[in-house]
Design brief:
The chain is of the alpha/beta class and 256 residues long. Helix content is 41%, strand content 25%. Helix 3 packs across helix 4. The chain is globular, with a radius of gyration of 18 Å.
């Protein structure tokens, strides 16, 4: 469904030019659950943002069902079709909600615009989704600044899941959550993908959580892909020094 052909991303010009992502090829097919792992600054978030059209590749193209994503996003109809099918949960949720509106609007609007669901049916669906993520639906009546970062992170995930996308891209979706809550969120992600057949791109700096929710992993370092393979196999026998360092950081979890 979602294909990246030799996409890269650079910033600046001349001697100050910096390449955040070296050319990468990816095929995100229905039901595929792919983890993208790397340390801070490895380029994993930039790669994820290019996949969903939030960053424009410096070279290469991203296509969705054979159509160029940049062309889809250039028209209202194409943009709505793409967002209906491809959703992203960003790491920094502080600027992803309108501070002037109660949180419920951030779930009701995509339901109305992308799914045509309004009124009590939309409110019921929004409440049901936040309950699945172990949140009180009463939080939806608050404003973004009145909830914690962890609650806002889960509401950001609820906003993406409520429209039932075919491709879900999550950037550090559990990084702001307490350990006790991470399991519930990861379980919900896994269940959603297994029951709906949706594809998942899970961006993280940790391999254990990635191995739980995905099947394959792509490890990045300095903008390059340095290792790929089955998540559990990479976790048990990492080949690249960067992968070994990531695994070592989570050794107690990996050993279990």
């Amino acid at each position: 469904m979602l294909t990246a052909e030799e996409i890269s991303r650079s910033y600046g010009r001349g001697s100050s030019r910096f390449t955040a992502v070296q050319p990468v090829d990816l095929d995100i097919t229905a039901g595929r659950r792919l983890g993208i792992v790397g340390e801070s600054g490895s380029g994993k978030s930039t790669l994820a943002r290019m996949l969903v059209g939030l960053e424009t590749p410096s070279s290469g193209e991203v296509t969705f069902r054979g159509e160029l994503v940049r062309r889809l996003l250039s028209t209202r109809t194409g943009r709505e079709d793409f967002r209906r099918s491809v959703q992203m949960v960003v790491q920094d949720t502080s600027s992803s909600f309108d501070p002037r509106q109660p949180l419920v609007e951030s779930l009701l609007r995509p339901l109305a615009v992308l799914k045509g669901v309004t009124g009590s049916a939309a409110e019921d669906r929004a409440a049901q989704m936040v309950r699945r993520l172990e949140l009180d639906p009463a939080l939806l009546r608050r404003f973004p600044g009145e909830v914690s970062g962890g609650q806002r992170q889960r509401l950001s995930l609820a906003r993406a899941l409520v429209v039932e996308p075919e491709v879900l891209v999550c950037d550090e979706v559990v990084s702001a959550l307490d350990v006790s809550v991470q399991g519930a969120v990861l379980n919900q992600l896994k269940e959603f993908c297994e029951t709906s057949g949706a594809a998942l791109v899970f961006v993280s700096h940790g391999l254990p959580a990635t191995a739980f929710v995905t099947e394959e992993v792509l490890v990045m370092a300095s903008g390059r892909v340095v290792e790929t393979g089955n998540c559990l196999e990479v976790l048990r026998d990492p080949q690249h020094e960067v992968t070994r360092a990531i695994v070592t950081a989570y050794e107690p979890v990996a050993a279990s």
